[in-house]
Design brief:
454 residues, 5-stranded mixed beta sheet, disordered C terminus, elongated, 38% helix, Nucleotidyltransferase, domain 5, alpha+beta
Length: 454
């Protein structure tokens, strides 16, 4: 895994996470009054960390995000995301034109919609692009942390994100999971009644959940005590929520997974949004070029091989001609000259020559036999040829027909075509219907022409 960089965006202090070989280094940035100054400080920190203009992932605070579970039934197929945005708008105190949203399917008819203010994110993305810092993903930090836990603990049914060690009144979050994805995201204050209410609601949800994983400290709630022995609350050791989000962000930047929720889309889509596929496409193009080169080399080798065989055959024909006609000049087309001399020889031998001609004709080309066979087969019958064995002096045919009569008609039609002597077929009824047949067809020899007349 190469070095990846995740930037944690906060209202006051940003943090840079450098993930190198599975180790996370978190560096807080100094406070700055304006956004361009913060980006400038980040640029200096990236340079100190050995940054080489690789894509970044921005982790957004939960206070910037809103979520709701919405129905996906009867959506406009032509503009599904726009229809989902209007349904999400019904649950939020912000209009669909003012937020950027992404969606995650949670059940057959519902999705989890998560959104953030469009203008705020656009300002940040423009500042990064102006500083020549490519932003590939915009993801909520809490969902990155939950995805890290879900990937390493497939049995997790919820992830609890407690407050950091400093302020005890910091907010808590509960991400409920199903099918390795989020189904509900709750953000609430760190006080007894709020924690009790949300954990009790999760505990009483359908499916009887019993496995809760906690980052940054387990919750203190009566809902998780001895009255529910089957309910387990397990702490994720040696990992904070920020470290988990950084590791998951590095995995996303490395191309290993796709984020659950990503706001780098639609109005905030990257100008080169398919840049992530550049390296795989380059590898694919290189593989195709290598394949074409190999195919070309193999074709050239086979062509040279065929040329060598053809030259050897021509040389053999020349040798035969020079042996038969040692005193004559070798013609340009030896085969035609040899065939011509052969016809003259057969004509001089008379009937004996006709007999020799018939013997030579009996071993005709297999392609000629196949042509005559296909021409003689009937067109008005339904049959199936399963095996066709072509030999110089006979053809074996096996297949299936609808009845014994049609198998007999098949041999009769082939016999009447005049090119073959066909034996009666051997037929056998099949258990599933129809009959199988097998017969032999022998090519007919050309009859000698009559010499003279009465």
């Amino acid at each position: 895994m190469s070095t990846q960089y995740v930037v944690f965006i906060h209202e006051v202090t940003w943090r840079l996470a450098v993930v190198r070989e599975g180790a996370v280094t978190l560096s807080p940035l100094a406070e700055a009054p304006t956004l361009p100054e913060r980006v400038q400080q980040l640029t200096g920190e990236l340079a100190s960390a050995g940054y080489s203009h690789t894509p970044l992932l921005l982790a957004l605070p939960s206070s910037w995000c809103l979520s709701a579970s919405i129905s996906k039934g009867q959506l406009d197929r032509g503009n599904r995301r726009k229809s989902l945005a209007f349904r999400l708008e019904e649950h939020l105190p912000i209009s669909a034109e003012d937020f950027i949203a992404d969606y995650r399917e949670t059940a057959a008819d519902t999705v989890l919609g998560v959104c953030a203010e469009l203008a705020r994110l656009r300002e940040i993305v423009d500042a990064f692009m102006a500083a020549n810092l490519p932003v590939r993903h915009l993801c909520p930090q809490a969902l990155l942390s939950a995805a890290f836990v879900a990937a390493r603990h497939p049995d997790a049914q919820a992830v609890f994100l407690g407050p950091p060690a400093a302020p005890s009144a910091a907010p808590c979050e509960l991400i409920e999971l199903a099918h390795h994805g989020p189904t509900r995201w709750s953000w609430f204050a760190q006080d007894g009644p709020s924690v009790e209410e949300h954990l009790t609601a999760w505990r009483n949800s359908p499916g009887q959940p019993n496995r809760l994983y906690a980052l940054d400290g387990p919750p203190q709630s009566a809902a998780l005590r001895s009255d529910a022995p089957s309910l387990e609350c397990l702490a994720v050791p040696d990992t904070t929520a920020e470290q988990a989000a950084a590791l998951e962000g590095a995995r996303i930047l490395d191309g290993g997974v796709w984020p659950w929720i990503d706001f780098r889309r639609d109005a905030l889509a990257a100008p080169h949004q398919y840049e992530v596929y550049r390296e795989p496409l380059r590898a694919l193009v290189a593989a195709l070029i290598l394949l074409l080169v190999c195919v070309s080399l193999v074709a050239q080798w086979r062509g040279q091989r065929y040329q060598t065989l053809a030259a050897a055959q021509r040389q053999a024909q020349v040798a035969v001609f020079q042996r038969v006609f040692p005193s004559q000049r070798t013609p340009a087309v030896v085969k035609s000259r040899l065939l011509s001399e052969r016809q003259k020889l057969l004509a001089l031998h008379g009937p004996a020559g006709d007999s020799a001609n018939r013997e030579l004709s009996s071993s005709s080309s297999a392609l000629v036999q196949l042509r005559d066979l296909l021409k003689g087969l009937p067109q008005d019958l339904r049959y199936q040829i399963l095996e066709l064995n072509l030999q110089p002096d006979l053809i074996r045919i096996e297949g299936q027909a609808q009845s014994h009569v049609e198998a007999e008609r098949l041999t009769i039609a082939l016999r009447q075509a005049g090119a073959f002597d066909v034996e009666a077929p051997k037929t056998q009824a099949l258990r599933e219907g129809g009959v199988s047949f097998a017969f032999v067809a022998k090519p007919r020899l050309a009859e000698p022409q009559a010499k003279g007349g009465r």
